[in-house]
TrEMBL record:
Ranges for domain THIF-type NAD/FAD binding fold: 11-245
Subunit organization: Homodimer. Forms a stable heterotetrameric complex of 2 MoeB and 2 MoaD during adenylation of MoaD.
Name under which the protein is recorded: Molybdopterin-synthase adenylyltransferase
Keyword Membrane: yes
Top-level taxon of the source organism: Bacteria
A Pfam family of this chain: ThiF
Reaction catalysed by this enzyme: [molybdopterin-synthase sulfur-carrier protein]-C-terminal Gly-Gly + ATP + H(+) = [molybdopterin-synthase sulfur-carrier protein]-C-terminal Gly-Gly-AMP + diphosphate
Transmembrane regions: 33-60
UniProt EC number: 2.7.7.80
Keywords from the UniProt entry: ATP-binding, Membrane, Nucleotide-binding, Nucleotidyltransferase, Transferase, Transmembrane, Transmembrane helix
Gene Ontology terms for molecular function: ATP binding; molybdopterin-synthase adenylyltransferase activity; sulfotransferase activity; thiosulfate-cyanide sulfurtransferase activity; ubiquitin-like modifier activating enzyme activity
A Gene Ontology cellular-component term: cytosol
Family: Belongs to the HesA/MoeB/ThiF family.
Amino acid sequence: MKLTEEQINRYSRHILLKEVGGKGQQKLMNGRVLVIGAGGLGSPIALYLAAAGVGTIGIADADQVDLSNLQRQIIHSTPDVGKAKVLSAKEKMVAINPDLNVVTYETWVNADNILSMIEGYDFVIDGTDNFAAKFLINDACVLAGKPYSHGGILQFDGQTFTVAPGESPCYRCVFPEPPPKDVIPTCSRAGVIGVLPGIIGTLQATEAIKYLLGIGDLLHGRLLTYNALRMRFREVPIRKSPKCPICGEHPTITEVKDELDALTVCDLGH
């Protein structure tokens, strides 16, 4: 499939890059990425994937836009308050790039639907706001062999790394199980600086684009942390754990399940 004159003009700055070019842009247009969460992290992720020309973008979230979201969830605006987040997000994505195929899932991910949801995608991005979803996404992607990007934020700190099932450490290699209740403060108690999800979410979108293009070094085995107050990034090496309950030498998790007692925290911020 050749690029049209309009597409050549739209993606000209990509095409000028020797690492991308016309063939790379076609890879992006044929790519399929699922974004789970349409809030703080999901907003910049969805906008930049749309602008980059990723052909099919799925976006999953069961929530509606609230006035308190607008401090950080830049894909939504004041007239969207009360609207389903996935529909609000789709409107902005298609406004940027009408050639997109945006698939909306107005539902929370759970053990019953996540495997079928991720099945048709090349890459998954975790933009969720609670530990239950984060462990669920990790387990589903590891069991299904789907690469994915983890992202988390709280107050002034953010973190991200990318999981390649069977090759790199997974989320449970670093965090074997959810923390005890009340150890991590909630969003309403702790807060989050509004620009933080933009920084971490943009990094996650970059990982997805690099994966689809097959270029650069992904955050495999590297936890990238960021502190906004000190304006400092730090890279922490992480390793596969032989005792990991899902990808270790003797896995005890062989199917997805919901972590019903996990505590909601401000990773995405509803």
